[in-house]
Amino acid sequence: MGDPREPPEGTPDGAGNDDEYGAVVFDESFVRAARIQELSARERLGGQYTRAVRPRIFFGPLGTLPRQAVVLLLLVAMAFAAAVYFGVSSPRRLSAQPTGNQLTVSLVALAPSSPVTAVPDTKNPFARLPAGYADGAAGLGVPAASATAHFTKPEVAKALNTAQQFLVASALTPAELVQGETSVVRTLITPGEQAQYDQSIADPRDDQHHAATGWLVRFDPGQVALAAGNVKVAGSMQVTEADSGTLEITTDHTFVYALRPAGTDGSAPVDLFSVRRELRFEFDRTDLGAGRARLVDSVVQAGPTACGSRQADYLQPVLAAPAPVPPASPAPAVSPGDHSRPAWQLCGTLGSITG
Questions:
Q1: Pairing verdict, β 346-350 and 104-112
Q2: Are 119 and 321 in contact (CB under 8 A)?
Q3: Which residues of 243-277 are buried (b: 16+ CB within 10 A; e: fewer)?
Q4: CB atoms < 10 A from the CB of 161, how many?
Q5: pTM across the whole model
Q6: Per-residue pLDDT tens for 95-116?
Q7: Distance (Å, rounded) from C-alpha 168 to C-alpha 125?
Q8: CA distances, 324 to each of 111, 120, 139, 192 (Å)
Q9: Do 104 and 278 form a contact (C-beta atoms < 8 A)?
Q10: Please, are residues 128 and 223 in contact by the beta-carbon 8 Å criterion?
Q11: Rounded to an integer, what distance in angstroms lies between the CA atom of residue 233 and that of residue 210?
């Protein structure tokens, strides 16, 4: 029998048993583990390349990786980072509606039950108002500040002062009432509501969230002018806690405005227009420190105005005509089965102004 160390086909020519590598067996695992790299033409000509294997990068416990694998991993990481970046900062996300507490608005038109008549004395238009009304901020009835269970007296005083500033800016300032001023009110609300406020001013809609008249009292300057420099006010403010970290202030006021048609002089008839506003503000300690309010609810009753009139942009007073005309039907019947009209659109009948 032949030598078991010899190949089955015999010893190749020129390779005898005295070959110095004759006893070395190149098994399959050895061949697979071999790392071979053929030199480029430049490397062969330069004669300075001494590496016999492809360079790899060492990653400690993870072992080594070839350079191509590292480049591939870097490309994958960059693609993932780009996807995350564009997902976070995409225009769709940046223009999303604000989340959390948003202002909810309810507008109630108060239609006249009889022909609207002008006041008898244009120089003293508020003469027939009952007792209890005062000029401007004096009628807001701001209570004295006192500590609550979780808020100090200075914190409560700061919240009351901010709410008062909001009421003055949004219902008592002539520039805002008939000149289109909106910037001062914006500075008094939290940044989280400013996008909603901007949308309400730019594109007013009676959808319970984007009525400009839910934020402020205003009249169309092309239709209405103020007939008196002052506004009569009666109402009150209450302080409670929504929770241990949220102070709540509810305001309930009636504002009475003396109005005349735009473009007329002092001889024009003057009408009284009343607006009841019940507002609910919330303040956390960040709001208090910044002197801003979060307006949560706004209920507005305004009259005399016609049922069905668009009030999301401007309040629409019915002014006295030279010859009294019969009022429109004040409060049309509402069918609960009629889904063609929004359920929140309400209309009532205007009664006499009381204190």
A1: parallel
A2: no
A3: eeebbbbbbbbbbbbbbbbeeeeeebbbbbbbbbb
A4: 13
A5: 0.70
A6: 334 444 589 999 999 998 888 8
A7: 21
A8: 15, 14, 32, 47
A9: no
A10: no
A11: 26
pLDDT tens string 252-268: 999 999 999 999 988 89
Report how far Cα 76 is from the mean position of its chain's Cα atoms. Answer: 36
Alpha carbon separation from 215 to 170, 173, 194, 230, 325 (Å, rounded):
7, 14, 11, 20, 32
Task: Show the DSSP H helices in 278-345 as ranges.
Answer: 285-290
Instruction: Report the amino acid identity of residue 91.
Output: P
Read off the tokens for 221.
């300057």
Q: Is the pLDDT of residue 91 over 60?
A: no
Residue pair 213/314 in contact by the 8 Å Cβ criterion: yes
Helix or strand run (H / E) with residue 281 = strand 271-283
48 Cα distance to chain centroid: 67
Here the tokens at position 255 are 């504002």
Predicted confidence (pLDDT) per residue in 203-221, tens digit: 999 999 999 999 999 999 9
From 217, 218, 198, select the one nearest 209 (Cα to Cα): 198
**CB contact at 8 A, 309 and 316:** yes
Alpha helices, DSSP H only, in 120-215? 153-171, 174-178, 183-187, 191-202, 212-215
Burial tier of 25 (Cβ tally within 10 Å: 0-12, 13-18, 19+): exposed
Distances, alpha carbon 50 to alpha carbons 42, 55, 57, 123, 229, in Å: 13, 11, 17, 106, 95
Q: Which helix (H) or strand (E) holds 239?
A: strand 232-243
| Domain residue ranges in the chain | 30-92, 104-334+342-350
* 288: Cα within 13 Å, side-chain hemisphere: 19
Phi, psi of 179 (to 5 degrees): -120, 5
Average pLDDT of span 59-73: 62
Dist CA 280 CA 114 (whole Å): 33
Structure tokens at 185: 């009110």
Decide: helix, strand or coil at residue 186: helix
